[in-house]
């Protein structure tokens, strides 16, 4: 028989975890329920499903070109992720596989620069981008994030586990250095790339402040910019907002459930 | 290839060239989009004037900081956010992690996934979500009233104190699970025999937590506190989308103030650069402090 004290203890653990789980999940439920209700019902805190979903969707479609917006967000996220991974993993590989005194110093400097907050960069970057005539372009959104110190660091750490015998063998086979990187290193680091893809894709899909500064015209808007604009309206229509919120959340939610293990590995990446 | 000095130096040179080729694209981009702007920002912070009409002002901008009530307000708010929010979140995350580290716990996978789930939302999306939940007659107040925790609805959006509480609740919701998985990963690396020994010695659970778990997890706790503090210092998306910094300036943060200075009002680049260096300085000092604390104790 389990002693009463232990039983009470176990009940307390479950009570706390159940409460935390409820608090964590409820907003997701609220998002779905709210999308089916009128704005007035959302404001009144109605927690049951309503019949306004179609009207909310129509209303959103009338206000914004949803297909365009979705494509903008997805395009930026996909292109940004591919280029960031390529450029940053190359650097991580280079720093680890070709060591030199100077590069070690450069790497140490990068770690110092890691803690520079974006808040300190937004003003100069905006001035640079506008004087280069790149204001309101997707390229301006992408450029500052393509070399990520965090991802470079992540790949350098992971490269420590890459057997240099593989590289030596490839050299004997006559492969050029870039071929070794492309055909030997990249395939053997699949799980590292998977985890990094998730981090970078999430950051890019959810990016807000920099696109807010750079992208001005409606045809350039991303999903986060649209949600923000809808929310800051004088009388926000919460039914419509919650439909847009579902659209913004669904891709990353699916990504999480499909690639749960890599997802968590990606988030943990930096401490390993 | 023969192992002659010439051949060796050829290999060394090719290693050098290749090493630079691999890191160059990243270094070039970082030079243009990180190093140059941060230095330019330092220079521009010494300039005064509006728009493109700038001239050298020395420390005028720094002096202006001390008399700028809005800035002081934003600074105070930012500090309140991280001083209150980071410890609450870290403690919650630790408790959840320790509870979930029990492999015999029923429903463990569900709890873990549920508590982690907020991390998949975008900051803007969850801000909009929270904005819709904290109306005066909204769902949160309804729940609190039904539980008899409050006698009358809380004015989350119009009361300066409760607006801050709302922001803190929102950030805690979004990031607790994120911190928790770091602790769970670290707990799995702890040798369970230490706990067995402590249990046999009759050390109670709370003492095991405080005397064993917390010290063993100290590096991770420190790491996550630094990350969270730096994140909170840069708080923008939430306040911009839940409260727009209001009511009044009650939830205005430094990042939002920089944004307003640059993009909402008549731009004064020099002064916004100065405010941004306040964040840089705070991030630097905090990272350094926490690093020293970690070193001293170990």
List the helices and strands and how they pair.
The complex is a heterodimer of chains A (272) and B (298).
Chain A: H1 4-35, H2 39-43, H3 53-63, H4 66-97, H5 101-113, H6 122-131, H7 138-142, H8 149-159, H9 164-172, H10 177-188, H11 190-206, H12 209-214, H13 223-231, H14 238-258, H15 260-268
Helix pairs in contact in A: 1-14, 3-14, 4-8, 4-11, 9-10, 11-15, 13-14
Chain B: H1 5-44, E1 47-50, E2 53-56, H2 60-67, H3 69-100, H4 108-116, H5 123-133, H6 139-146, H7 160-188, H8 192-200, H9 205-216, H10 218-233, H11 237-243, H12 254-264, H13 269-297
Antiparallel strand pairs in B: 1-2
For the termini of chain B, the CA-CA separation is 51 Å
**How much of the sequence of chain B is in beta strands?**
under 5%
The CATH topology assignment of chain A is: MetI-like fold
List the strand order in the largest sheet of chain B.
Answer: 1-2
Percent helix of chain B, as a range, is over 70%
The number of strands of chain A is 0
Structural class by helix and strand composition of chain A: mainly alpha
In total, the number of domains of chain B comes to 2
Question: What does this entry look like structurally?
Answer:
The complex is a heterodimer of chains A (272) and B (298). With 272 residues, chain A is mainly alpha-helical. Chain A has a single domain, classed as MetI-like (MetI-like fold), CATH 1.10.3720. Chain A is built from 15 helices and no strands. In chain A, helix 3 crosses helix 14, helix 9 crosses helix 10 and helix 13 packs antiparallel against helix 14. The longest helix of chain A is centred in the N-terminal third of the chain and has 32 residues. In chain B, strand 1 and strand 2 form a beta hairpin. Chain B is an all-alpha fold. The longest helix of chain B has 40 residues. Chain B folds into two domains: 57 residues, no CATH class; 230 residues, MetI-like fold, CATH 1.10.3720. In chain B, 40% of the residues are buried. Chain B contains 13 helices and two strands; from the N terminus they run H-E-E-H-H-H-H-H-H-H-H-H-H-H-H. The mean pLDDT of chain B is 87. Chain B is flat, with a radius of gyration of 25 Å. Classes of the chains: A mainly alpha (272), B mainly alpha (298).
């Amino acid at each position: 028989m389990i002693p009463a004290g232990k039983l009470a203890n176990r009940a307390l653990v479950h009570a706390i975890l159940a409460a935390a789980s409820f608090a964590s999940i409820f907003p997701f439920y609220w998002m779905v329920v709210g999308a089916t209700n009128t704005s007035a019902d959302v404001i009144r805190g109605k927690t049951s499903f309503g019949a306004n979903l179609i009207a909310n969707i129509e209303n959103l479609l009338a206000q914004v070109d949803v297909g365009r917006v979705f494509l903008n967000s997805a395009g930026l996220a996909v292109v940004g992720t591919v280029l960031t991974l390529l450029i940053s993993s190359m650097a991580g590989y280079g720093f680890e596989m070709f060591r030199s005194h100077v590069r070690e110093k450069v790497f140490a400097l990068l770690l110092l620069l890691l803690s520079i907050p974006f808040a300190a960069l937004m003003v100069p970057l905006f001035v640079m981008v506008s004087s280069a005539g790149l204001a309101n372009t997707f390229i301006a959104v992408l450029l500052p994030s393509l070399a990520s110190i965090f991802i470079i660091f992540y790949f350098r750490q992971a490269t420590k586990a890459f057997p240099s015998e593989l590289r030596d063998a490839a050299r004997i086979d006559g492969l050029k250095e870039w071929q070794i990187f492309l055909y030997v290193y990249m395939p053997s680091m699949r799980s590292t790339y998977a985890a990094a893809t998730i981090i970078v894709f999430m950051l890019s899909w959810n990016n807000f402040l920099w696109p807010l500064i750079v992208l001005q015209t409606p045809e350039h808007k991303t999903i986060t910019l649209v949600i923000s604009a809808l929310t800051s309206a004088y009388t926000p229509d919460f039914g419509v907002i919650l439909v847009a919120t579902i659209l913004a959340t669904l891709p990353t939610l699916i990504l999480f459930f499909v690639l749960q293990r890599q997802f968590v590995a990606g988030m943990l990446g930096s401490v390993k | 290839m023969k192992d002659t000095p010439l051949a060796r130096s050829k290999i060394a040179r090719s290693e050098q060239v290749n090493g630079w080729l691999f890191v160059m694209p990243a270094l070039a981009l970082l030079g243009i989009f990180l190093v140059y702007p941060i230095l330019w920002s330092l220079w521009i912070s010494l300039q005064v004037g509006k728009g493109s009409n700038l001239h050298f002002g020395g420390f005028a901008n720094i002096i202006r900081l001390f008399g700028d009530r809005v800035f002081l307000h934003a600074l105070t708010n930012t500090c309140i956010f991280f001083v209150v929010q980071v410890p609450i979140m870290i403690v919650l995350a630790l408790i959840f992690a320790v509870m979930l580290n029990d492999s015999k716990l029923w429903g463990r996978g569900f709890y873990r996934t549920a508590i982690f789930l907020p991390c998949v939302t975008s900051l803007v999306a969850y801000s909009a979500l929270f904005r819709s939940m904290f109306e005066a007659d909204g769902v949160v107040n309804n729940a609190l009233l039904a539980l008899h925790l409050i006698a009358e609805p809380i004015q989350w959006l119009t009361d300066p104190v409760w607006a801050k509480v709302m922001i803190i609740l929102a950030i805690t919701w979004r990031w607790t699970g994120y911190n928790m998985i770091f602790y769970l990963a670290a707990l799995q690396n702890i040798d369970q025999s230490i706990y067995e020994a402590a249990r046999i010695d009759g050390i109670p659970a709370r003492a095991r937590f405080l005397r064993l778990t917390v010290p063993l997890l100290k590096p991770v706790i420190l790491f996550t506190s630094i990350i969270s503090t730096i994140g909170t210092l840069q708080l923008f998306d939430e306040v911009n989308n839940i409260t727009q910094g209001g009511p009044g300036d009650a939830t205005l943060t430094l990042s939002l103030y920089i944004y307003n200075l640059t993009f909402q009002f008549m731009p004064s680049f020099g002064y916004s650069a100065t405010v941004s260096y306040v964040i840089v300085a705070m991030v630097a000092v905090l990272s350094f402090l926490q690093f020293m604390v970690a070193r001293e104790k170990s």
